[in-house]
């Protein structure tokens, strides 16, 4: 089904992304990111130069100022995932969907001036650290503390599974500034690379997303100046996280649909080129039936997601709607990728093939950004009339 949410500006932007891919998303580059476990800085800077990251950074800070129009980000995901590089799409996503929004929406003027221009050019890498070894779904169970001190806070604790955690220059960090677990006991602090007592820890070895770093972080008596408190207001951290979660969930749904769409394309090509029993794989009725299912699922994914993209643009995408689309889209993505791996036979299991990498990347979509069980919990509570 033809999609109708993109206008000429979006399509012109798509051409820019394609041009970037031609130059920078080569097989050699992808293999290097996978081997090193991270995307190199030159690639991030080139994305800044091309104007395809930092999209929501306001123009006065050197960005594109596309604050609510996530359609541009969707195009970046479609094209980069379509080019077989989920890791690069992941690195861009952390910058644009998880780090930049806290500064744009909630940063003080000084924080914006200090960080946003570099985030738009790709010179500064951002990350978001909420999860801890002992608390993921239950964020109010975190133990990292930020105690008041002369001119700032002393931070102690640890975070884990932090995407871009090894390469980040600045990390929006969820900490406890109060007692107990009431929403006002938490704040967001900007913790900077190089602060004494802050250790980026070790890079974690993952099932997928091999070219994007995920790290453990530790904080041992890290002094964080008062001016690094997001919005300058203590006790707002939980509310601030809740404000950005719909975007994070929409972004995962978009990445899932982009992967499903890419998988369809790769699988059609593959099954046309491979033969068994004297016929092309696509000429078996089973293959065509499976591809018919996949193509229909991809259409349904975009029909749903496109509505959500427009709702987000108009400020109408609620936390519950974002939760629905996140779990539904990532589960359809999983079904599609599994089918497409199967249609590739043994080659579907070999990571030289984009289908195998996309399959490995897809598994975490049902886990991070809030697990799909937590998404169902959010939706179910609303249906039951519980808060
Ligand atoms: C590759 C990767 C990248 C990540 N990037 C980041 C990042 O950049 N920043 C960040 O802060 N975090 C990040 N995370 C962490 C991620 O968001 C968490 O792993 C996720 O929220 C789940 O938390 P957990 O691992 O502690 O699982 P747990 O909360 O321990 O959950 C374990 C199981 O119990 C289920 N469960 C828990 N509570 C309930 C409930 N109430 N009802 C029903 N079932 C429940 C869960 O659904 C899950 O199946 C990342 C994780 C991975 C793997």
From TrEMBL:
<protein>
    <submittedName>
        <fullName>Acyl-CoA dehydrogenase family protein</fullName>
        <ecNumber>1.-.-.-</ecNumber>
    </submittedName>
</protein>
<keyword id="KW-0274">FAD</keyword>
<dbReference type="InterPro" id="IPR006091">
    <property type="entry name" value="Acyl-CoA_Oxase/DH_mid-dom"/>
</dbReference>
<dbReference type="Pfam" id="PF02770">
    <property type="entry name" value="Acyl-CoA_dh_M"/>
</dbReference>
<dbReference type="InterPro" id="IPR037069">
    <property type="entry name" value="AcylCoA_DH/ox_N_sf"/>
</dbReference>
<dbReference type="GO" id="GO:0016491">
    <property type="term" value="F:oxidoreductase activity"/>
</dbReference>
<feature type="domain" description="Acyl-CoA oxidase/dehydrogenase middle">
    <location>
        <begin position="127"/>
        <end position="222"/>
    </location>
</feature>
<dbReference type="InterPro" id="IPR036250">
    <property type="entry name" value="AcylCo_DH-like_C"/>
</dbReference>
<dbReference type="InterPro" id="IPR046373">
    <property type="entry name" value="Acyl-CoA_Oxase/DH_mid-dom_sf"/>
</dbReference>
<dbReference type="Pfam" id="PF00441">
    <property type="entry name" value="Acyl-CoA_dh_1"/>
</dbReference>
<keyword id="KW-0285">Flavoprotein</keyword>
<comment type="similarity">
    <text>Belongs to the acyl-CoA dehydrogenase family.</text>
</comment>
<keyword id="KW-0560">Oxidoreductase</keyword>
<dbReference type="Pfam" id="PF02771">
    <property type="entry name" value="Acyl-CoA_dh_N"/>
</dbReference>
<dbReference type="InterPro" id="IPR006089">
    <property type="entry name" value="Acyl-CoA_DH_CS"/>
</dbReference>
<feature type="domain" description="Acyl-CoA dehydrogenase/oxidase C-terminal">
    <location>
        <begin position="235"/>
        <end position="383"/>
    </location>
</feature>
<dbReference type="InterPro" id="IPR013786">
    <property type="entry name" value="AcylCoA_DH/ox_N"/>
</dbReference>
<dbReference type="InterPro" id="IPR009075">
    <property type="entry name" value="AcylCo_DH/oxidase_C"/>
</dbReference>
<feature type="domain" description="Acyl-CoA dehydrogenase/oxidase N-terminal">
    <location>
        <begin position="8"/>
        <end position="123"/>
    </location>
</feature>
<dbReference type="InterPro" id="IPR009100">
    <property type="entry name" value="AcylCoA_DH/oxidase_NM_dom_sf"/>
</dbReference>
């Amino acid at each position: 089904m033809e999609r109708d949410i993109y206008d000429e500006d979006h399509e012109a932007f798509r051409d820019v992304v394609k041009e970037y891919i031609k130059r920078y998303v080569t097989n050699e580059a992808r293999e290097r990111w996978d081997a090193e476990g991270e995307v190199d800085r030159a690639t991030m800077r080139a994305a800044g130069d091309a104007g395809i990251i930092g999209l929501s950074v306001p123009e006065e800070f050197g960005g594109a100022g596309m604050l609510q129009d996530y359609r541009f980000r969707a195009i970046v995901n479609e094209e980069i995932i379509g080019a077989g590089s989920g890791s690069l799409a992941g690195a861009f996503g952390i910058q644009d969907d998880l780090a930049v929004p806290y500064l744009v929406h909630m940063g003080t003027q000084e924080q914006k001036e200090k960080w946003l221009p570099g985030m738009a050019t790709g010179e500064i890498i951002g990350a978001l650290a909420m999860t801890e070894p002992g608390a993921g779904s239950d964020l109010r169970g975190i133990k990292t503390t930020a105690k008041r001190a002369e001119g700032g806070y002393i931070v102690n604790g640890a975070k884990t599974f932090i995407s871009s955690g090894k390469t980040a220059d600045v990390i929006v960090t969820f900490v406890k500034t109060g007692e107990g677990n009431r929403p006002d006991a938490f704040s967001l602090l900007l913790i900077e690379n190089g602060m004494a007592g802050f250790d980026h820890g070790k890079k974690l070895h993952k099932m997928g997303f091999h070219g994007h770093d995920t790290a453990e972080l530790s904080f041992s008596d890290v002094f964080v100046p008062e001016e690094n408190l997001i919005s300058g207001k203590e006790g707002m951290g939980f509310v601030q996280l809740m404000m950005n979660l719909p975007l994070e969930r929409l972004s995962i749904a978009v990445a899932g649909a982009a992967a499903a769409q890419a998988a369809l394309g790769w699988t059609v090509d593959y099954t046309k080129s491979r033969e068994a029993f004297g016929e092309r794989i696509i000429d078996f009725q089973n293959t065509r039936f499976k591809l018919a299912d996949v193509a229909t699922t991809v259409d349904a994914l975009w029909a749903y997601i496109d509505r959500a993209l427009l709702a987000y643009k108009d400020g109408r995408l609620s936390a519950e709607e974002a939760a629905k689309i996140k779990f539904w889209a990532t589960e359809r993505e999983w079904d599609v990728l599994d089918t497409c791996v199967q249609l590739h036979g043994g080659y579907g299991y070999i990571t030289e093939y984009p289908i195998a990498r996309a399959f490995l990347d897809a598994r975490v979509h049902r886990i991070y950004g809030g697990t799909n069980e937590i998404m169902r919990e959010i939706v179910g509570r609303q249906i039951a009339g519980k808060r």
